[in-house]
Amino acid sequence: MTNKIIFGTDGWRGAIAEDYTFENVRRCSQGFADYLKKHQKQGQDVIVGHDKRFLSENFALAVAEVLAGNGFHVYLTDGATPTPVISYAVVDKKACAAVNITASHNPAKDNGFKVRESHGGAIPPDELKEIESLIPEDETKVVRLPGAEAEAAGKITRFDASINYIEHLKDLIDLEPIRKAGLRIQYDGMWGNGAGWFTRLLAGDKTEVIEIHNTRNPIFPEMKRPEPIPPNINGGLQATVDNHADVLIINDGDADRVGVGDENGVFINQLQVYALLALYMLEIRKEKGAIVKTLSTTSMLEKLGKLYDVPVYETGVGFKYVAPKMLETNALMGGEESGGYAFRGNVPERDGILAGLYMLDFMVKTGKKPSELLQYLFSKVGAHYYDRIDTMFEGDRSVREDAIRNAKPQTIGGLKVTGLNTLDGFKFLLEDGGWLLIRFSGTEPIMRVYCETTHQEKVQAILKDGLKIAGL
Q1: Cα-based distances in Å from 294 to 160, 314, 323, 326, 400
Q2: What angle in degrees, to the nearest 10, is found between the helix axes of 83-92 and 352-366?
Q3: 413-450 pLDDT, tens digit each
Q4: Which listed residue, 75, 76, 286, 310, has the most CB atoms within 10 A of its CB?
């Protein structure tokens, strides 16, 4: 019997050739087509794009064939395209939806089938379940039109999504001051879709962009996976030092996340980056509006919210929760612990290119290097420190959840526990305004233990206590 396809945060992900096969991609596509037809989208445009993973362009064509066979007109990207550019294309083309073939930051063996709404953002969890329920059990129920025939009939149109996205960027940020600033920017493309983009956007004046890992290599050498955190970015951090660069900008495999290293080759973690971007928006750009954050990201945002008199909303983990809240509140920005940040005026979806440009603009507008920006942030909200441990676990998840719920620790890492938030996992609130979060992965037997604290020397003690509470 054909395996059941389970949708996670953004869609479906699987191991190439094991469960991520052409048959299963076509089944997924048929389920999505049936979902769109059920919601009266028959005959409308759908965007289909892909990353640089093994066979991604072929899987994308397979998706396009099924959608065309079901009566939709498909705009198929003419090459590997950053996820934020695909998301913007949905709005730009007034399409009803998008499918993106990418496994983003996951290991080389994986690929994915991500779906997007007409606003370019994530589809809500209940509708993801609906799509999942409509996926046929086998390929006999799949309707498809061969690619060459569909293109000849005008039912698949290949297009370059970058042109209109770059025009759109001009409404969000003035790139000329960055080009003229004379910055030396080290860029790590992690063998993915962001390669060449910062060079293309910022070339032509005094600023210089030096790229590494900027060709296609779907085994992702020199890193465990194209996720912009250590140790995957150690090569980029070293290159920053070797090339005497002012900053390191890193994008993950599909360029919807951003990572930052300072001028000394020191990683600025993703919670710090989110707080820096918020400070940039509130103080440098003088913008006002709600900030949306997942419960796994920084409490520095609440402190900035109080300082600048803007509301801060906390959601479950994943942009399937962040995007709807951003739309509901007309939020200034939304983000999550993984390094994905979205901004008002753009689609309600992570954009690692725009986030990187905003960070560079922050440097130019203040004349400060990244380490100085971080100290400036800490002068406003105090120093905050973060770390995370992911651990495989065995046994029944519900038994472990009950044990965590019933643990009721009085202190964690020597800090008094002041509350428990069970919105998404178990978030123990600590007396210093910090927290410990224990969450289970929705797609694999992994438990994640995260913490943030104002006491740098207590980080490992908090995580150690978190592992004990989790029974690990």
Answers
A1: 33, 5, 11, 12, 23
A2: 100
A3: 999 999 999 999 999 999 999 999 999 987 678 899 99
A4: 76
